Amino acid sequence: MPAASIEWFPLWLSLRVASLATILILTFGTFVAYFLSHKNFRGKEALDSLITLPLVLPPTVLGYYLLVLVGRNSVFGHLYESAFGQPLVFTWQAAVVAAVLHSAPIYVKGARTVLEGVDYRFEWVAHSLGASEWRTFLRITLPLAWRGLSSLASLCFARSLGDFGITMMVAGNIPGQTQTLSVAIFDAVESGNGQAARMLVLVISVTALVLLWAAARLSRPTARASHTA
Amino acid sequence: MGGGALIAPHGKGKSHGMSQPVKIDARLIKRLPAIGETKEFQLNIHLKSDAAITVLWGASGAGKTLALHCLGGFTKPDEGRILINDELYFDAATQVNLPPQNRRCGYVFQDHALFPHMTVRENLKFAAASARHSSKLNKHRRMIELLEAFELSDLAGRKPAQLSGGQKQRAALARMLVGDPRLILLDEPTRGLDSRLKQAFYQVLRTTRERSHAPIVLVTHDLEECMQLAEFVCLMEDGHFVQSGARDQVFARPASSEVASALGVYNLLPAKIAALDPSRDTCSLEVAGSEVQGPYLKGRLIGDQGFLCLRQTESRLLPNIGRRERNQIVLRVTGVVPSSQGAKLLLEHGAAATVSEAEYVHLRGEDTVKLDVPPSAVYFLAK
């Protein structure tokens, strides 16, 4: 088998992009979800809808928005370029931004539900004992929501692996630089490299399946765990 | 076992100075809009109590828990003011609203709400680390003391799921006391417990009283518990107090026939005022064809209709034989049901009386019985 003819770089890039995207989503998404689940403010549901929007818009539209938002002529693009010395678009970092946009809605939506599901009485008790909101969040809410959130995180990771449209729009298809797994599959099929395409398809399918299985296991309500934990 | 004397009005070793401010003074108005099936609701109470244990008693839906939430700072009242030991917790007029973190209210939920992912010791440690006053050393010492006092030292390494109901209760109370609260709020602490565990809880509550001077506000729908624990009672119905006062006063003199029937331990017999004699301080009531004498009724007129309100334990049941003495009412027996204390006789006018087995021997098979009412027990309630 001439396995040497398959370029593995796209797999490593995809894993790196998905990991970074997941970390970013976990950090910021959890806070957004906390505010959506625990605070009452004006425009809360409007914000929720805005966050959900990427789930339903075509990837090309999202890619277009991103280009407008972080392109070289945009305010953010200028800021990024002066801070890091290179433009954001058509780099692998842009693929991270694309993956975040692709996966964040699922995480924030789910995390809101998970955090809302944490029994408010535990938080009330913590407050009445004098614990600040931050401390209550870190020591009570987060540990109690941990299973749900980590299940969402693996879902997020799996989804980040698979983005194609947005990545193509903002990161492009530069082999060895921005070519992620899904883009590489597209490329392999286009150029008639059937063996590479089959291999990459198999790899991404198995990875996604394993991640989904892990997510399902984590989100399963374990009666036993609560007794023996 | 903890009996009625469990919490004496003046707990041992605790002298409350005369100049002390009122412990609890809370005026609360909170409106809840109608949602779906539930009707709109308004809580409107003025809780003013100096007692060590104040009990809010009422059926579910009376607003007891909502009142506790307002005191604890979890729900913001629409109007009113909360003063605890002269400290302002909430004032709608000046927009003061201390967050729960700054109120130092020990709140214990019905099912204890021990943090499930922490051991008992970690639960208490969390409380110690969260308390914003007193030194670290003090808090640590207090924690050790409390583990000891509530017999938790051997259980400290266990998670809540490994504790029995009574142990959870002790742990929840100990955790609440770590922060040395200024006000203790207990929401139906014995709901769903059997009577043995209830008694155990009263015992633990005594330990709590020994460890904290903070006034306790306890919510319950259990009349027996209310009798055992309360010094001061507020009877709640539909968001307001129908009556409040010292326990004995409230139970000896329910404010209306509605209150009396809600409490469920009174016999209400239709009565008419037949005579009033202020000079001899007597009155005479016509009850079920009999005449009953009692103390003079101020502000009433002859012919007023109402009820003779008798606590079921205030009167004696006698077989209907021999001459009818003064203050004896003859009532028809409509049924008998067995009771844990003997037998419960159901009488006409919806009255009932529980008698011991020994007394029942003399009453068995009787169609009518005599209710012997001591004049001091005569209490007239207008319709």
Question: What can you see in these coordinates?
Answer:
The complex is a heterodimer of chains A (229) and B (383). Chain A has eleven helices and no strands. Chain A has 229 residues and is mainly α. Chain A has a single domain, classed as MetI-like fold. Chain B has 383 residues and is an alpha+beta fold. Chain B folds into two domains: 233 residues, 3-Layer(aba) Sandwich (Rossmann fold); 126 residues, no CATH class. Chain B has a six-stranded mixed beta sheet with strand order 7-8-9-3-10-11, with helices on both faces. A five-stranded antiparallel beta sheet of chain B has the order 2-1-4-5-6, with helices on one face. Chains A and B meet through α6 and α7 of A and β7, α2 and α4 of B.
Q: What tags apply to this protein structure?
A:
heterodimer; A: 229 residues; mainly alpha; MetI-like fold; 11 helices; 77% helix; globular; disordered C terminus; B: 383 residues; alpha+beta; Rossmann fold; 2 domains; six-stranded mixed β-sheet; five-stranded antiparallel β-sheet; 9 helices
Write the layout of secondary structure elements.
The complex is a heterodimer of chains A (229) and B (383).
Chain A: H1 9-38, H2 44-56, H3 59-70, H4 75-84, H5 92-116, H6 120-128, H7 133-161, H8 165-170, H9 181-190, H10 194-219, H11 223-228
Chain B: E1 24-32, E2 41-49, E3 53-58, H1 64-72, E4 79-84, E5 87-91, E6 96-97, E7 105-108, H2 120-130, H3 136-149, H4 165-178, E8 183-187, H5 195-211, E9 216-220, H6 223-229, E10 232-237, E11 240-246, H7 247-252, H8 257-263, E12 266-277, E13 282-287, E14 290-295, E15 305-311, E16 316-319, E17 328-339, E18 342-347, E19 352-355, H9 357-363, E20 368-372, E21 380-382
Helix pairs in contact in B: 2-3, 2-4, 3-4, 4-5
